Amino acid sequence: MPDAFVAAPIILAAVLALAAHAKWGRRDSLVSAIRQLRLPDALHAPVRQLPPVEAVLAVLLVITPSPPLLAAVAALTLALMLAYTAVVARGLRMTPRPSCGCFGAVGAPITVETLVRNIVLTLLAIAALAWALDDHTVPTTVRNGGVQAWALLLVLAAAAAVTRWVVLERTGQPRPAAPAPPTQAAPTQALPTEDDDEYLRQPIPPALLLGEGEPISLRHLASRRAQLLIILTCGCGDNARIVAERERWAEQMPQIDVRLVSTMTPERTEATFAGQGGWLYDHEGVATQALGAGGQVCAVLLGADGMLAGGPVSGPDEIRQFVREIQETLADVPVPTLTRGGEEIPVGSLAPAALVFVSEGCAACQPVKDNADEVARYLQGHGVTLALVYRSEPEDAPHAPELTFVDADGTVSATYGVGGTPAAVHIGTGGAPQSPIVVGADAVQDLLRSVAR
Predict the structure, then answer these.
(1) Which of 70, 76, 163, 268 could form a disulfide with 132 if both were Cys (CB 3.0 to 4.6 A apart)?
(2) What's the start-to-end Cα distance of the chain, in Å?
(3) Nearest alpha-carbon partner for 1 in 76, 70, 77
């Protein structure tokens, strides 16, 4: 086999060394990538060891003096490249596509070019293995001076191609755009305004966040209610005060959800902002960059119609002004309310609560209604309110009257995307949903059990 195949282990070593260096201080981000790719939790511990494994393989590919030992190293490298290629192929089938974390912070969302790159690296690993089995090693080839001019050109060409892929991944990430003026939000299902000309609306980008270990797209997050995202990249400056103000803002704006997003790891975020839960996490800041946001703390408003509705704005003072303008816009937007005994009750005032949507004449709803009193006492012991929501006042309900709430005009059902009964949703501060809407008696019972945990 020609000595020109020395290019294969050398290129692989260079790529593995770069990957190990990029990942070394960002092992938590590898776990985030595993979660985005919906891979088993059992992989969390092994992926943390990838940087040293890649570094060792990079060194051994170059310095191993024995062909049998080099063959073993090349075989391990091939196995690693096959695994990476399988992961990338899996990511290509997801919408939106996550980042593979292949080059740590350098990595961008997976593309077809990412798959092509990994296939080329896999072929290089096969070539390195075949070359080693043909009784070759890098030290022996270099020492014997058998590398011809064309082989050097091959090395340079292949190295340039691989470098191009890596560099394109780095530069291909969306760059933060200049923050838009903190004007009033343009129209959404939740935030109407007449100032259409003041804000050029754009579609919500197809980016992912992590919530409770599960990936969720920005568009899905805002599919039922407008979302005000407060994005923090560190615990410095006035950020702690902004975090502390979130709960008050959520109470003042029950028509929308106010959420905290961190580009830091969950461990660092929880240590920095102790006692503050409900975080969403932005792996490597990819979603933040896709939104055109930047700075130590920034905010953006996602409309419930799939479009950006305001921002991004950066800085504590700018965010507070942004919130004031949203509050002014929401002043004329009715707060979702239920009635109980003729009294109107804002949904947010019931929180934390489990809203269970039922109807008369619904056979599947009957077990839920029959057990409502017992479930209500159980949930009350955990600080959670149970509300059975009807479309009209029931004539003969088999549960305590104080559990009966009426959504006569269907506004509350529409707010949470209820399409049938029985259905349920867990709500928190300001009426913000803490769970997806679930439909069916079994799913409702499962949700009620989970709420009390």
Answers:
(1) 70
(2) 64
(3) 70
State the Cα–Cα distance between residues 296 and 281, nearest whole angstrom.
Answer: 15
Q: Name the β-bridge partners of 304.
A: none
Q: In what order do the strands lie in the sheet with 257-262?
A: 214-217, 208-211, 280-281, 257-262, 227-232, 297-302, 308-314
Q: Is 189 helix (H, G, I), strand (E, B) or coil?
A: coil
- Kind of pairing, strands 438-439 and 423-427? antiparallel
Q: With a cut of 90, say whether residue 72 has pLDDT above it.
A: yes
* Non-local CB neighbours of 383 within 8 Å, separated by 6+ positions: 352
Report the alpha-carbon distance of residue 162 to residue 13 in Å, rounded: 12
- CB count within 10 Å of CB 198 equals 13
Domains, the chain: 3-171 (no CATH), 196-330 (3.40.30.10), 337-451 (3.40.30.10)
338's CB contacts (< 8 A; 6+ apart) are 344, 345, 347, 350, 387, 389, 405, 406, 407, 412
Taking residue 20's Cβ as centre, other Cβ atoms within 10 Å add up to: 21
- Is the Cβ–Cβ distance between 422 and 413 less than 8 Å? no
Calpha distance 162→56 (Å, rounded): 20
Inter-CA distances, 134 with 4, 60, 274, 308, Å: 13, 18, 59, 59
As given in the structure block, the two tokens for residue 95 are: 């919408």
Cβ partners under 8 Å of residue 347, min gap 6: 254, 335, 336, 337, 338, 355, 412, 415, 427, 431
Helix axis angle for 50-63 and 7-23, nearest 10°, is 150
Q: Which residues contact 377 (CB under 8 A, 6 or more apart)?
A: none
Question: Mean pLDDT across the stretch 101-130?
Answer: 76
Q: What is the DSSP letter of 202?
A: -
In this prediction, residue 406 has a pLDDT band, given cuts at 50, 70 and 90, of: very high
Helix (H) or strand (E) holding 262: strand 257-262
Percentage of the chain modeled with pLDDT above 70: 78
Work out the average pLDDT over 229-257: 82
Is the pLDDT at 167 greater than 60, yes or no?
no
